[in-house]
């Protein structure tokens, strides 16, 4: 089993944290994981991404060359991956922030628009976009347990934000199950 996942967005959306949490949970579930990250020239507002590889086998190269899943949370990130070459790569994009019609793109069935930011706002936690995305990714991989993720979240977030993040994770997993 091997999955290559890319979380991409702009600085401040928490894509690096989502990748880190997913990698830590994978390791707790007995899998191997690598996570790399790249930032644009500005810390906030510039392009940011993290590549995550989760595998039951040894991982020899830490960057995603053949992604299975890309989650794009900003137009700049989406445009960078519009030409993804792999036919089986699923690209989830935030349809609340990315207007594909205005970009004039003809997208195939690999591309799925989900109003991730709007859903986070409806949950009362606009900053949990990354955790919703994490839930979507976990439902794609399936070999990472909810309990491992809940444990990681409880070690990462304060008590006053933990419940909202667990709710966002659950919502993301539920949403992912309807996509995959």
TrEMBL record:
<dbReference type="InterPro" id="IPR002869">
    <property type="entry name" value="Pyrv_flavodox_OxRed_cen"/>
</dbReference>
<dbReference type="Pfam" id="PF01558">
    <property type="entry name" value="POR"/>
</dbReference>
<feature type="domain" description="Pyruvate/ketoisovalerate oxidoreductase catalytic">
    <location>
        <begin position="11"/>
        <end position="174"/>
    </location>
</feature>
<dbReference type="InterPro" id="IPR052554">
    <property type="entry name" value="2-oxoglutarate_synth_KorC"/>
</dbReference>
<keyword id="KW-0560">Oxidoreductase</keyword>
<protein>
    <submittedName>
        <fullName>2-oxoglutarate ferredoxin oxidoreductase subunit gamma</fullName>
    </submittedName>
</protein>
<dbReference type="InterPro" id="IPR019752">
    <property type="entry name" value="Pyrv/ketoisovalerate_OxRed_cat"/>
</dbReference>
């Amino acid at each position: 089993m091997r999955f290559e996942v890319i979380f991409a967005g702009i600085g401040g959306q928490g894509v690096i944290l989502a990748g880190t949490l997913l990698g830590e949970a994978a390791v707790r579930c007995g899998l191997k994981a690598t996570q790399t990250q790249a930032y644009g020239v500005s810390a906030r507002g510039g392009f940011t991404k993290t590549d995550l590889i989760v595998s039951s086998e040894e991982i020899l190269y830490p960057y995603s060359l053949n992604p299975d899943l890309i989650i794009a949370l900003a137009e700049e990130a989406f445009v960078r991956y519009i030409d993804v070459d792999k036919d089986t790569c699923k690209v989830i994009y935030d349809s609340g922030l990315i207007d594909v019609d205005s970009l004039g793109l003809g997208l195939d069935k690999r591309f799925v628009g989900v109003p991730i930011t709007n859903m986070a706002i409806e949950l009362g936690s606009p900053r949990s976009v990354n955790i919703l995305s994490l839930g979507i990714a976990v439902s794609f991989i399936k070999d990472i347990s909810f309990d491992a993720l809940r444990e990681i979240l409880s070690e990462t977030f304060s008590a006053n934000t933990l419940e909202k993040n667990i709710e966002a994770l659950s919502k993301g997993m539920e949403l992912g199950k309807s996509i995959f």
